[in-house]
């Protein structure tokens, strides 16, 4: 299978340095469209869809491979190896922040910097850890996914976006969720929301910026601070934004945060 076709890889921009964008759960590469034009003059901008998302080759989805986030991390590594990429800047949203982290731990020479937007290593509360949701909450959510994926998508997307004054973004996110194959989406959700990558944070040595919305109902400031405290070479930045998708709802604030970091 052609790796670039499998992940629907697209390349834009004229720069020599590479910026790779990795989308979050339920999304696809189109969600970066408010961000990427700001970087195309200075960088080669590479976008892709996780297998099972967007215009990726859905037939490449193998449940066993994607039983945890390492399968997605291996895909990022394969994309970079196919394009012979080294010392790239990875911009990763939500679950892709953990996917990118795993890729960077496995193949650190590929990465120069990682920019995480709304990362969470664990969504379920634990002793001395606040992930934002009880185990009961998550298990009930997964059960709802199994029985009524479209209904769940309609209910969760306003919470994820959390910008009621921009209903078109909520509608776009809902439509993106609904375009996914329900069986793949259910499995990816289970892997995402029941996973635990807290112990992996200490192994990441790549310089990392954590961008955090001041109000995020999916990954709170407390979660972002936890990620920062456990990644040794990291910076933590709270931007003036609401919701879990600031690259869509507050693109200028997100662009400015990225530019300040990569220009250091």
Task: Write up what this structure looks like.
With 264 residues, this protein is of the alpha/beta class. It has a single domain, classed as Rossmann fold (3-Layer(aba) Sandwich), CATH 3.40.50.1820. It has helices spanning 3-6, 70-82, 95-106, 135-147, 149-161, 167-179, 182-194, 221-230, 246-249, 251-262, and strands spanning 10-12, 17-22, 43-47, 88-93, 111-117, 208-215, 234-242. Strands 1-3-2-4-5-6-7 form a seven-stranded mixed β-sheet, with helices on both faces. Helix 2 crosses helix 3. It starts with a helix and ends with a helix. The mean pLDDT is 95.
Short description:
This protein has 264 residues and is α/β, with parallel strands linked by helices.
Describe the protein's topology.
Elements: H1 3-6, E1 10-12, E2 17-22, E3 43-47, H2 70-82, E4 88-93, H3 95-106, E5 111-117, H4 135-147, H5 149-161, H6 167-179, H7 182-194, E6 208-215, H8 221-230, E7 234-242, H9 246-249, H10 251-262
Parallel strand pairs: 2-3, 2-4, 4-5, 5-6, 6-7
Antiparallel strand pairs: 1-3
Helix pairs in contact: 2-3, 4-5, 4-7, 5-6
């Amino acid at each position: 299978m052609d790796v670039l076709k499998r992940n629907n890889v697209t390349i834009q921009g004229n720069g020599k340095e590479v910026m790779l964008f990795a989308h979050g759960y339920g999304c696809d590469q189109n969600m970066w469209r408010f961000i990427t034009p700001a970087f195309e003059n200075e960088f080669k901008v590479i976008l892709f869809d996780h297998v099972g998302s967007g215009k990726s080759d859905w037939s490449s989805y193998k449940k066993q491979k994607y039983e945890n986030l390492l399968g997605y991390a291996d895909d990022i590594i394969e994309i970079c190896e196919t394009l012979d990429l080294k010392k790239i800047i990875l911009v990763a949203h939500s679950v892709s922040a953990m996917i990118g982290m795993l890729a960077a731990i496995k193949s650190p020479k590929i990465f120069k910097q990682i920019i995480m937007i709304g990362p969470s290593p664990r969504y379920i509360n634990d002793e001395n850890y606040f992930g934002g949701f009880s185990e009961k909450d998550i298990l009930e959510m997964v059960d709802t996914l199994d029985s009524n994926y479209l209904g769940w998508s309609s209910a969760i997307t306003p919470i994820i976006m959390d910008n009621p004054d921009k209903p078109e973004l909520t509608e776009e996110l809902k439509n993106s969720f609904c375009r996914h194959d329900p069986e793949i989406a259910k499995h990816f959700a289970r892997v995402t929301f029941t996973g635990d990558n807290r112990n992996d944070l200490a192994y990441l040595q790549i310089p990392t910026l954590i961008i955090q919305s001041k109000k995020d109902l999916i990954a709170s400031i407390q979660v972002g601070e936890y990620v920062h405290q456990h990644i040794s070479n990291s910076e933590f930045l709270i931007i003036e934004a609401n919701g879990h998708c600031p690259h869509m709802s507050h693109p200028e604030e997100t662009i400015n945060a990225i530019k300040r970091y990569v220009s250091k």
